[in-house]
């Protein structure tokens, strides 16, 4: 079990890791050894995550989310497989922690009278500047 928060723990069987050749540092070794890690986590079908957290997690994942609801994280920052595994897992845990925070609902507000006046003043100043750019009258 991977502890994410006090209430959420991920089952290790829900995380799938595949090793691929990385493109980062490593010299000639990079062509021979599969040190990069591709971590896959099915956020849509995970039993460890409550539904609201899973929905927020899928929004946070953005382009890392596939059409099937699987989050794919590729880690190739380090030269060793083990450090890349830790990096990918840490990034997933951080995304889940971010998804556990409930966003504060937005309250509608109206602009103040002073801000309306400032906006209109700046518009009229800009208008005057543009009027001054016109062709100058000729006195012939």
Automatic annotation (TrEMBL):
One of its GO terms (molecular function) is peptidyl-tRNA hydrolase activity. Residues 100-140 are annotated as: Disordered. Keywords: Hydrolase. InterPro entries: Pep_chain_release_fac_I (IPR000352). Signal peptide: none annotated. It comes from the Bacteria. Residues 7-133 form the Prokaryotic-type class I peptide chain release factors domain. Its EC number is 3.1.1.29. It is an enzyme of class 3 (hydrolase). This is Aminoacyl-tRNA hydrolase. It comes from Microvirga puerhi. The lineage of its organism: Bacteria, Pseudomonadati, Pseudomonadota, Alphaproteobacteria, Hyphomicrobiales. The gene is arfB.
């Amino acid at each position: 079990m991977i502890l994410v928060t006090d209430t959420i723990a991920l089952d290790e069987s829900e995380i799938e890791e595949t090793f691929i050749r990385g493109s980062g540092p490593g010299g000639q070794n990079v062509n021979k050894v599969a040190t990069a890690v591709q971590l896959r986590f099915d956020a849509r079908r995970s039993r460890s995550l409550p539904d609201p957290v899973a929905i927020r997690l899928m929004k946070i994942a953005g382009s890392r989310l596939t059409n099937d609801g699987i989050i794919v994280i590729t880690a190739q920052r380090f030269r060793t497989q083990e450090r890349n595994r830790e990096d990918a897992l840490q990034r997933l845990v951080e995304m889940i922690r971010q998804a556990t925070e409930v966003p504060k609902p937005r309250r509608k507000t109206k602009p103040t009278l002073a801000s309306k006046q400032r906006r209109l003043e700046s518009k009229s100043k800009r208008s005057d500047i543009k009027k001054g750019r016109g062709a100058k009258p000729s006195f012939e």
